[in-house]
Amino acid sequence: MNNINIKDLLKKKWVITLVVFVLIILMVLYIRLSNKEKTPSINQTVYNQINISPPISQSVELQKAIEDQKKVDAEYSNWQEDINTNYPWLKKLPLYSDKYFVYFDINKKIFISKLYPKVTDNVNDMKTEIVRQLKVEKEIPVESFKIQWSIIPR
Amino acid sequence: MKRIILLPIILCLLVINHKVNAQVPTSDKSIKLGTFDIPSGTPIPTIPPEQPTNIPQATNPPINNPPPINVPPIGLITGGPVNPSDPVYCIDDEDPDSCDDNTAFHVPKGTGGVPGSCGTVVEQGHKIVNSLPHFDKGIRDSVNPSITNCNYSTGTYSSGYISTFLVIDAYNLAGHKELSKSNPSHVRGSDLLAWWNSPEAAAAGYTYIPYSASAIQNHAAGTQNLTGCTVFLNLSSGVHVGIFNVLEVTSSANGQGVLSILQSGVRFYIDRFLVDNWNILNTPQHQTQLSSVSGFGCHI
Lengths: 154, 300
Hints:
The complex is a heterodimer. By secondary structure, chain A is an alpha+beta fold.
């Protein structure tokens, strides 16, 4: 009796269509649910692998290297700070033209002034002009330091 | 009729088959991601796990014909405030009172030099410097925003962006993928110097040029470009590094001018060193307890 009923039903097109439609809906739902489950699992896998992959000994070694370099950079930074505090006008140097080149030697703590005069140039005038520029234009306390003059005739 | 009944069953089988196949590349991808060298013990980079810094990629052929040296015109330039997009830095930017002195020197942004498949090293250096803190008095050891180029990202740092990180990042951003922030031999400056002198580095196209006056002179003459090279500076506690930015020549006859470097992890992200007779002066070691610049790490 049942067999007959099923056969009868299968003969009707609308029943077949309904079955196909329901199956397609089920498949779509299955795919969507599967994707939702997959997304966090990928992230979790990556996260775990990132944390696990470097051996512990490497991490310690890396940390040591970073700390060592921080100390070096700190030493350099302190040097920069020291220079900036003591010689804030250093960034305004060198003073230069085609006849002179003046800079401050932070080791000797003196100004190095190299003059390249032509035969027609007055060296004393050149020196006066350099000191004026340092004091007036650059606002450098040049009187607090020695100036070492080097005259190199052209 | 039977065909109509079989149709949904075949469809089901096809979907299941598709899903099984789709899982294969997913697991492959996980394995590749697992090889990333991200320092697990380093809490400094604030990089999300799904955004690793070292993304494997196909390496493009290196550029064998580097562009000619871009030597700035003779002389130094001065001026007031500048924008990040301007071709110069105002060194006063690094002071709390900002760039307000029109008589202070500007520092040109170096161009050309060490090439990579994704740009020059110095170009990447400028990008990173723009992400270092400006205007605030303090250590330039944070990065925000991160810089991304060539499938590589610096990540953001709230602190701890040491000097070697800038070099490593600049080279990677330019397309040179050999250096890694998770490799202690690259992270410690003295080890980085040793690495740059190693056969491994040489095989990958890295070169080391010991410091000498002639090296500076050759750069000025355009025969040996040092722009973008790593500058190794000896200190009593180790080796500090920066990136060779530009040499501004005031007198080529007397070998005089100013050399500038880019750096991180320190008080000033730009340092200017006087050059006289092609010798670099006023570096920490030249003037105090150190022996100054030890050399330049470059790449062909």
